[in-house]
Amino acid sequence: MDKTSVVIRNYVASSMATALIPVPLLDLVAISSLRLKMLKALAILYGIEFSRKIGDFLITTLLGGIMPLSIISPIASTLKIIPGIGQTSGMLTLPILEGAATYAIGKIFVRHFESGGTLRDFDPKKAKKSFASEFKEGQRVAAELNKK
Length: 148
Description:
By secondary structure, the protein is mainly α. It contains six helices and no strands. Helix 5 packs across helix 6. It starts with a helix and ends with a helix.
């Protein structure tokens, strides 16, 4: 496995574990931070100048356009408040969703960096087109990691 794949898989696993934090919405804040750290690690591997402000904006913009994910994740996180069924459903669905989204973000940025792109010329609108297929692959990867 190449270095970028290792970085992405490690952050997918970390996102999945972080999604299990029982405090609603704290999990999402922590996952956002992890994704930014992943982007920084990938930028370093490719020798790309990293800006926390730009990286945060790009990830937020990329995820913001994915309507189901931007609605489902906060709802699943908030459901953790409800004892029993809410906690169970949040704990079952959120790790796979967040792991898959982290995977998709990583793959999209790797593809962009490999084509000679930087953070400054990344176009979230173009990237959204491939997000769905990467997210689907990310669900497979997250489910596989979840079994371990």
